[in-house]
Amino acid sequence: METFPYQMYVSDPTFGDDSPFYWRPMLLVTIFGHSNRFDTIGLVDTGAVETVIPMDYWDEVEPLFRDGEEGDLVAANGSTIFMRYGTVDLATRIGDLVYRWSVKVGFSDDRDELVLGDLGFLRHFAVKFDRAARKMTVHDPVDLPVAFVQTIPTGELPHFYQNVRRLMKSHRDRKTRPKPRRRPPNRGGG
Fold first, then answer.
1. Is-contact 108 40, C-beta < 8 A?
2. Strand 114-116 to strand 135-141: parallel, antiparallel, or no bridges (unpaired)?
């Protein structure tokens, strides 16, 4: 079990929330494809049915795929997201161990960050979210067959896990570009 702090992002205040910050439950993940690996962070999203990876990562990751495994995923708001499916291994560090497992994920042009959803992540790990404390606790896998779990002692962790601050800062910088502030219409009588 390990507790991860939410990551802070900068944004323009809104009329509903005057804070210039927002917080998100993010997790360090390595994506392994056919011959490559890609280190990134992903949003842990209880509302996501599947794990979705930005299409920009396709060439970097080189997932295993079959022709024709593509289609539309219906989002919670009713919109459709075109997905091309491929099989990758995901790995993350929980406590002193790194767990690695295989999963079929969707790649989409409609995403600009990794989304760790029910299929691919939340079905395997018990996660407790504490929004007030801005942290999430991820427990060791609950149902991964032993054949799909690779444990690595922390002394042998990939360099990715030793450069966490650099990766998190890089992701935050990409995601926190200021957006123009919209003003509500003037409702006064003057």
1. no
2. unpaired
Residue type, 23: W
Bridge partners for 44 per DSSP: 116
What's the rounded Cα separation, in Å, for the pair 190 and 187? 9
**Domain-wise residue ranges, the chain:** 2-165
Structural contact between residues 8 and 77, judged by C-beta atoms closer than 8 angstroms:
no
The pairing of strands 52-54 and 97-108 is: parallel
- In order of 30, 54, 62, the CA distances from 71 in angstroms are 25, 15, 19
Per the DSSP assignment, residues forming a β-bridge with 186 are none
**Furthest C-alpha separation in the chain:** 72
Cα 87 to its chain centre, rounded Å, is: 16
Rounded Cα–Cα distance for residues 28 and 6 (Å):
12
CA 163, CA 157: separation in Å to the nearest integer? Answer: 11
Place of tokens 């018990």: 126
CA distance 149 to 168: 25
Q: What is the CATH number of domain 2-165?
A: 2.40.70.10
* Percent share of the chain, pLDDT over 90: 53
DSSP one-letter code for 130: E
Question: Considering the entire predicted model, what is its pTM?
Answer: 0.77
pLDDT of residue 151: 55
